[in-house]
Amino acid sequence: MTSNIIADLQSKRNIILENWIAQRELAEDFGGNFNSTDDLKTQSAELLDILLQTITSQNINDLYSSDLEPLFDYIGGLTVSRAKQGFSPRETAVYIFSLKDALLKVLGETISDNRELYTTTLEVSKFIDNIGITSFETFIRGREEVILSQSDEMAELSTPVIKVWDGIIAMPIIGTLDSARTQVVMENLLQGIVDNESSIAILDISGVPAVDSLVAQHLIKTVSAIRLLGADCIISGIRPEIAQTVVHLGIDLSKMVTKATLASALKYAFAALQLEVRRVAKEKSNL
């Protein structure tokens, strides 16, 4: 695309905008997410203006040009803004793609040479397509960031460290125990031992649906790390089916203290610290 053609497009900015708005108003997907047609005109005018200001005969074929950063920054903001308005990523991409028709209509009226028109049409089409794809990528990237953030928060909430008594902490685990989650469990449990100056840590796996060789290895590593801090670890929540699976797989947990229930683990921990839990008789009333 030559500089003269770009200048022609800039001079016909209002015509392009009018054609684009008219086309969008007739589109089947145009509807209630905009409060009024004025909102559509404002948004479209901003996008068209920044496009015509940044595009040159050199960077139209170089999407990584620093000159185009303002345009792609605006596209990112536009995608987020439209998502908040209720537009799907597909609707935003289609909206951007529709600008192509308005531009090509003006180009067809401006360029008389068929070969030049063909070349320019390809350049403009490819450029607008890439802008539309960028909007979709921005939406996906934003959604992935939200998912990762929520996953981290869920991981923290699903591995709480509970101070049961002076010197005793417990961590109930619910859900599958994989390598990534084991790392979180180990870090939180070790930090909990240090923060609470605990000598006994109870790891309750009542909520773990199944224990295989991989999960067992994760548990062994966690217990070993706890022992390096000078603390003892009790694994509770060993259900009958888990016990059978462990034996069937030939996994050796004999060096670990295991209990069937959390209550049994607490009783063992209290005994290890020479603590006694007993009922206190109620005082008889003199009345």
TrEMBL record:
Keywords: Phosphoprotein. The keyword Manganese does not apply. Residues 158-269 form the STAS domain. SUPFAM superfamilies: SpoIIaa-like. Pfam families: RsbRD_N, STAS. CDD domains: STAS_RsbR_RsbS_like. This is STAS domain-containing protein.
